[in-house]
Every structure is written in structure tokens, then in C-alpha cells.
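Hi everyone,

Forwarding the result from last night's run.
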Amino acid sequence: MCIIRQCLLLLFLILAGYSNGFEVTPMADERYTGDLPAMADHGVIRVLVAADLGFYYLDRGQPKGVISEMLLLFEKFVLKTTQQHFRIQIIPVHRDQLFPALLAGVGDIAAANLTVTAQRQKHVDFSTPVLKEIQELFITHQTRDAITGLQQLSAKEVWVRASSSYYQSIRKINKQLTDKNLAPMSVHFLEETLQDYELLQMIQQGIIPMTVIDSHKAEFWDLVTDNLQIHYAFPLRDHGAIAWCFRKNSPELKKLVNQFIEQNRQGTLHGNVIFNRYLNNKAWFQKAVNPTNIKKFNKLEARFSRYADIYNFNWLMIAAQAFQESQFDQSRRSKAGAIGIMQVLPQTAQEPYINIRHIQYIDNNIHAGVKYMDFIRTHYMADEDIDDLNKLYFALASYNAGPNRIKRLREVARERGFDHTKWFNNVEIVVKEEVGIEPITYVGNINRFYTIYKQIYSLQNAAGQRMAKIKSLRYMPSR
């Protein structure tokens, strides 16, 4: 369980966040394409990002990282260069949605540590490189043999995201192996929401044997983590470049972005300051990965499990919700009078359908919060044609913004042509307009944690099954 505990707390901190300087929104229903004049008509340049520790992550409610700081500079540069009042709108998406969302007109730029590849250049244009001379490198536990040649990769297992440039590189290696009549590598796909830190934790814990990472990231992780081996002797890709990208046939936007990057890429004064702050300095990492929160979580696990089981919830979802509410702080008191780890209002806890006293005590507080979630799910969505996952999303939104309000806004969404049985990209759009960004952030964060932990449990179970199989074969009596 160590890997899960550590990853959970880190994930609460690395989610793509919401900044006072930027407009940050979920993926919008309005879609349009075109060059810079089309963006001027809307007064906005939309930038697609993906959460990535060190590059775009959340620290105490504020976006941090290389990309976040570059986008702040980009906003100032655009205003100065164009003399037009463009807003920079940040749209966080999963990594596998970066290119589809860009091509569909959801965003205008994708800025997410993307490698320039020939395959990608068939569909999008890339800017001047932000980083050059990048290698893609295999990462394993330090106990593994060094990889120095192609033959050593035959029949080996590797875990990557399907949307990554790493997968394209592994396909080339597999072609080289099959051309030599050698067994190809066995490729396993990870969920797109998983970040580099989680993958490296899985390597350290023996859950997966091998992954791939860019050299500029690998050097940082080598600075802050133990027990990893970076296989420099046999890179998958040499002389790679990291850049921003945008739709083809956008010459004016391309010119603007290239001018900015030429002045702010690695190797420039501004670029070196930003990159050195995150890639050559581990102080920010030690601040983000706070062991105090991990210790809190370890102590609370049994309580989350106990009350989640009573009301048929996933206990990790309840843990994520508690962190979102209070950062696991039972002493937390809100201006509205909400109390404790689940931020329960005393009057709500005293209602007949909850009827739990003394919520100043942590067990009662968690119990009241989970029971209220169950009440919302049971009484506001019981007879409607909503799948279980969307019932969960609506219950979370109701916990945050009030069940009657969410019920009313679902009807508004239906009248406006949205699917009132689905939260993401449907009811959430109306809620954002009518209530604000807070319920969107609330549901989005908790959903992200939940998705990632399903993946980690799946990997752990698979690893356990492999170990059991190995042991059963090892001790099989000889014939």
C-alpha cells in the first residue's frame, strides 16, 4: 500500500490548477478554428495543458512549473507585441486529448512537454523548440542489468502511455528486433492521467519493470529519487526536440509563438531561470511532496474504509474528497461554519436523514460526510436514468454546491440541449456559468484521483498475480 499512499498525496498536489492570472476552464462546448485573427475575434488564445509535476502542477492552490511560468510570460508578450487585449485561457485536459482537442478547435496551442515527431507533424505544426538535444531513455530499478544493445530488449516488458512519443520509439525498436528475427518488446499501456512520478514510484516498488522518460526529466528524477537506473548507453531517441504545437495553416499564430519562444526557450536568460528553478533544484519538489500529509493519510485509511463500506462507496474516493475539503485537517473551520475533515455543517449533521452528533470528533465527521453523500445519491437521483459514475459526480457537485441547486441546473442544462444525465462537458458547463468554477474544480480533482487509483490497484493486482504464478511454478514438484 506504500505506493498508493505516496501517490495519492502527490496527486492532490500536481493536478492542473486554477490561477488568479489565467482563466482556467474545463473543455468547452464552443469549438472554432482559424489563425490569429479568428482568436482576436474572440479575444482569447486558448492553451491546452496537461498536469505534469515540475511543468504544470498545483502548489497550495496556485499553478507552478516550467509551463505555468512560461505562459505567464507569454501572456505579457502577446499583449505587448499585438497591442490587443488577448486573454490567455488555460484548458487542462488528459494527455491523450491534447492533439484531438487542438484539431477539433477546443484549443489553439498545446503546451505540454511535447516531443516533435514525424508522425505528429503530419497533423499539426510545431514551434521553434523550447528544448533541444533531448534523449528518450529507458528507466528500470537499479538492480536490473544495464541496457547497452538492442538484443537485450527482446521479449522485455515496458509500460508507457499510448499517446506518448515513447510508444512511437518503441515501435521502431520492435521493427528492428523483428527484422533480426528476435522477439519484440511487450508493450503495456498505462492510463493517460498517470504522471512520471507515479511511474517511477511503480518502478521502485517493483509493480512495473520498465518505462521510458525524456532525458531532461530523467536527470531531475535522478536528483531526487533513489533506486532508479537510467540507461544512457542505449537511448530510444537522440537529438529530440520539445516544442509547443498548433493547427496547420496558422502562420500568424506560428510567427507570434516562435518570436516568444526564441526569447524565452532554454538557453535564453528568462528560459534558463525558469528551467533551472525546476529541473536543477529539488527544493520545490521537497515542498510539494510533503511527508506530513502522507502520515496523515496512513492514519486515516481505516476510517475512510469503514464508513465507505457501510454506504457502498470507494474508500479512495472518500479520501480524495476529504483532502479536497480540508487537506485531512479535522480542526478546519470554514467561514460558513462547516466543521472538520469532511467540512460538514452542524445543521446538516443534525437533520433527521443524517442525525450524527458531535462532528467535532473525526469518526463522527467522516461518518456524517459519507452518510450525506449517500443521502444525496439516494434521494436526488434514485429514479433517474443516470449511470453509477455520473451519480457519483452529481453527488459530489451537490455536496459542494447544494443538491437542490444542482437538481435545478440539471433541468436548465436539459432545456439548453445538454445531456442532463452527464456531468462532464454537459451539466458542468451550466454550473460554471451559474455558480462559478469551484464545483468544477471540486468534481474534476476528485474524479482524477479516483481514475488514477483504479489504475494503480489494477497494476498491483496484476503484479501480485504474476508473483503468485511465478511462486507456483517455482515450487511445482518435478516429474
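Residues 131 and 186 are 30 Å apart (CA to CA).

Cheers,
N.
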